[in-house]
Amino acid sequence: MKLAGLGTAAAVGGFLVGIVGGHPLHDKRDLVTEVVFSTVTVANVYIYVDENGTPYATTTVSAVTSTEATTTLTKTLVTSTSIIEVIPTPTSPIPEPSDISTLVTSIASAGPAFSESPSLIASVTKVLSTSVAVEPSSTLIEVSSVPVVSPASSYTPPPEPVQTYLPSPEPEPQPGPSSEPAPEPYIPPSSSKVPDPWQQPTPTATTEANSDRLPIGVTYDPFKVGGCKTEEEMKNEFEKMKDFGAIRIYGMGCNVIDMAVQWAKKYNRKLFASAYLSKQENGETLEQVLPALKSAIDQHANGNWNVVALFAVENEKVTKHDLTVSDVVNAIHHARNQLRGYGYKGPVGAVEIVEVMVKNPQICEASDVAMVNAHSFFDDNCEARNSGKFVRDRVKEVEKACKKRVIVGEAGWPHQGDNHGKAVANKDNQHAAIDSIRREFDHDLFLFNAFDSPWKTNWAASFNAEQYWGFLEW
């Protein structure tokens, strides 16, 4: 009689889907809830292009954090003499017992994906459902709980915000500066007046001649709209730079080597000499520059090469895709050999932006010191008053990659141009930036630039600030 009752109950349970027949032998199990959280950090990626639309550098700046929607899976199992009822939550259906279901939560990323940005891979979560065969009796049902497994991902967190300095265009006379003012300048506290950052004690001959530490220097170019500055104009400008311990020049144009050597000798200063190597029409060659430098040393310094502290074969030409890394490495070796024959024993290398120097260790290896340009203005997230820390962080990055002494060939802030993010171009911010840099550095750095360069071309990718980096006029 009891067996017949059980058979009847089973038949009724098979006919009425979803209705539990018979009397349950056990209370309901507790709800089992699995909640999966997945957090993905997405980097903001900037690609810089030149005026022809050709990409030349990529950087990641800042980051946002995105949290996936929670996936909740709830299963309630009831044991009885005849039926096991599986009740899913309405938002998470349970698959067939014989299958392994895969729940994939897609990631919606903001902005386009770029080739150099970190690989963003959606994390796939698998929830496994175990099928259990149950005899129609009071057998204990054991439900296995399979932990959520996230497969190994190749995604790595983005690095700290990285600044990519936009290179200057090739020299080209171009009058007509932009006059759009920059709002909201940074004004130093009125409680303590900060002296002009370019005013510094005159270095002594002994200190500068015997030390590897270069005094704070300044960059200079001899051009004006339509051609070269006159000899008288150049003499007047060199006089205004006499408070600096060193000067950087970029080639031999307008007889600047001769003028710079005379200035360095007169005031017992140091010279950062360079060649303007380029495959463009206005490029120089080592065969032109090195003999001109030797001639000036022989004529104005009695053949004493101590006046020259550094020599660079090029400035940002790999960044601009004008020269290859191999071109630069070969030029460094050639220049070093010829200069050693002349009697110069100082460092020889090349100047690039931080990203290019770090990504091309061959340049570091070929150079005696690592020389880089680092401009805080081109970072959307850097205020002028934080420029010193910005440049210091860049130097640490190069030191880690190159394992060599680092010299900053350019660091400054424009007094006019287009504002972007926290970077505001005006005179007050220029003073704030240079003051910040001078507080952080007391050697191995050249401030950019002594005077404005109206002969250069302003262009959108450089925030129309190419002409307005001079700070000695204010």
From TrEMBL:
GO terms for molecular function: glucan endo-1,3-beta-D-glucosidase activity. Residues 168-188 have a biased composition (Pro residues). InterPro entries: Beta-glucan_modifiers (IPR050732), GH (IPR017853). Its main location: other. Keywords: Hydrolase. Residues 145-155 have a biased composition (Low complexity). Residues 145-216 are annotated as: Disordered. The keyword Hydrolase applies. Transmembrane segments: none annotated. GO terms for cellular component: cell surface; extracellular region; fungal-type cell wall. Residues 189-209 have a biased composition (Polar residues). It comes from the Eukaryota. PANTHER family: FAMILY 17 GLUCOSIDASE SCW10-RELATED, GLUCAN 1,3-BETA-GLUCOSIDASE. This is Glycoside hydrolase. It comes from Corynespora cassiicola Philippines. The lineage of its organism: Eukaryota, Fungi, Dikarya, Ascomycota, Pezizomycotina.
